[in-house]
TrEMBL record:
Family per record: Belongs to the cytochrome P450 family.
CDD domains in the record: CYP152
Classification via SUPFAM superfamilies: Cytochrome P450 (SSF48264)
Organism: Agromyces salentinus
Keyword Oxidoreductase in annotation: yes
Keywords, ordered alphabetically: Heme, Iron, Metal-binding, Monooxygenase, Oxidoreductase
Protein name: Cytochrome P450
Cofactor(s) in the UniProt record: heme
Length: 415
């Protein structure tokens, strides 16, 4: 029975989701006075849930798989066939270990150092010009990601790759021609990643040991054979693409400093304050709206039995703004992370639960480190000014960005 879980008023909430964007769940949870409701999304029955308890059920205990978890238009741009996200059980654990080892703390520190140097170079390159900070962040992070992966610069077209990787994220929630165009760019990026993996395997490129590209090229499957080249290429993109996606948090970090300048002094002076600021940016600003999952093992929750095959959609945005976990959730307040208990199911912009055993993002520490480093440098060095423009962040367009893509005027040389 559905005793504990009310039904949404609409016959199908697909159009409502497109109309309301990030606030889709919040509006309905509030109206129905519930943390779960059933509906249809584009014809498919779904239960939409939010909050720490729902996040725990969704991410812990192997209850869900990612099979048919998201529309193919999203899936093909973000993860694709054979990736770690599509695996479960022992095969998932084996592949996830590779990601966690590639993203261990020393490696994250290395990525942050490379990013630092690239950002310095970008401020010099763009001195005295007005640019979209989003575009500059994409370019900077692509260069950093390529170098950190150990890919020789001459082996890829960095500009083209930057545009392709950014389009995969920007177009993930769009339909029709814009989505197809981004899928064509993804296929191009996959083809070049495949040829790169093949060249590494043939020893044609000089690649340092312990680099992600070597690790992925030489990684074996649970059965001991090399990963199929298509899968290795997909996993290489699974490192490059999300590093470039951190560009959104860099823009949001700059946006937050611009609107809340009182925090700048503390962020500039104190690494821990910069990390708290980065976490509040990740909590407060919109990125992944929801995550879908398909029940693979029956379980009971809210007086109802969830059967294998059922589709559940966890609202990440609503969970990050849940008043049961966060006081005054709409307020931007990095101090809420002073003495925070670290509950893995309340701050969930990159998934919930445990990273090693579930699908939580293995790139979270890298994301926090890059964002904290960036806001600290912006706060300390004031490398740009922010000319008048539309700084509003519409919550309908997913994924979100400030309307004018945060244009900044870089300081002159030697400033
Ligand atoms: C998984 C978001 C950065 C690599 C995830 C998931 C989310 C997410 C929500 C969970 C997907 C699920 O439940 O199935 C983000 C956001 C980022 C980010 C918002 C900020 C830009 C990164 C970075 C990396 C990365 C920097 C690697 C360098 C991955 C991988 C998975 C994943 C490989 C799949 C994990 C698995 O299925 O076990 N990410 N991520 N992400 N993320 Fe991230």
């Amino acid at each position: 029975s559905e005793a504990g879980i009310p039904r949404s008023g609409a016959l199908d909430d697909g159009p409502g989701f497109l109309l309301d964007g990030y606030t889709f769940g919040q509006r309905r949870f509030r109206k129905l006075g519930t943390d779960a409701f059933t509906t249809r999304l584009a014809g498919r029955p779904a239960t939409v849930v939010y909050g720490a308890d729902a996040a725990r059920i969704f991410y812990e205990g192997d209850r869900f798989s990612r099979e048919r978890a998201m529309p193919t238009s999203v899936q093909h741009l973000l993860q694709d066939e054979g990736s770690v996200q599509t695996l479960e059980g022992a095969a998932h654990h084996h592949r996830k270990t590779m990601f966690m080892q590639m993203l261990r703390p020393e490696a994250v520190a290395g990525l942050t150092r490379i990013f630092d140097a690239e950002w310095t170079a970008a401020t010099v390159r763009h001195a005295d010009t007005t640019r979209s900070l989003y575009d500059v962040a994409v370019e900077t992070l692509t260069r950093a990601a390529v170098a950190w992966c150990g890919i020789p610069e001459e082996a890829v077209d960095v500009r083209q790759l930057a545009g392709d990787l950014a389009a995969m994220v920007d177009r993930a929630a769009s339909f029709g021609p814009p989505n197809w165009a981004a899928r064509a760019r993804r296929r191009r990026a996959e083809a070049s990643a495949r040829s790169l993996i093949e060249r590494v395997r043939r020893g044609e490129l000089s690649i340092a040991d312990e680099t992600p590209v070597r690790r992925i090229a030489t990684e074996t499957d649970a059965d001991g054979g090399l990963l199929p080249v298509e899968v290795a290429a997909v996993e290489l993109l699974n490192v490059l693409r999300p590093i470039v996606a951190v560009s959104r948090y860099l823009v949001f970090g700059a946006h937050a400093l611009h609107h809340h300048p009182a925090w700048a002094r503390g962020v500039a002076a104190d690494d821990e304050a910069a990390v708290r600021f980065a976490n509040e940016v990740r909590r407060r600003y919109p990125f992944f709206p929801v995550m879908g999952g398909t029940v693979q093992r029956a379980f009971d929750w809210r007086s109802r039995t969830f059967q294998p095959g059922e589709w559940v959609v966890l609202d990440l945005y609503a969970t990050n703004h849940d008043a049961r976990a966060w006081s005054a959730p709409e307020r931007f307040n990095p101090d809420r992370f002073t003495g925070w208990n670290g509950d893995p199911n309340t701050l969930v912009p990159q998934g919930a639960g445990e990273v090693a055993t579930g699908h939580r993002c293995p790139g979270e520490a890298a994301t926090i480190a890059l964002t904290a480093e960036f806001v600290q440098r912006v706060a300390a060095e004031a490398p740009f000014t922010v000319p008048p423009q539309d700084l509003r962040i519409g919550l309908r367009r997913m994924p979100a960005l400030p309307r004018d893509r945060f244009r900044v005027r870089f300081a002159g040389p030697g400033a």
